[in-house]
Amino acid sequence: MSHSDRDAPGRKPRGGAAGARSSRAGGRPRDPAIEHAIIEAARKRLASDGYSQMTIGDIAADAGVTRPTLYRRWASKYDLVVDALKYGLRQQREAYPAIDWDRLEPVEAFKEAVRRLDPRYNNKAAMALHANFMAEADREPGLLEQLREHGVGPRCEELLTTLHLLRERGAVRPDADLDIVVTMCFGSFFGDYLRTGESPGTDFADRIVDTLWPAIASTDRDGPAGNAAHG
Question: What pTM does this model have?
Answer without folding.
Answer: 0.76
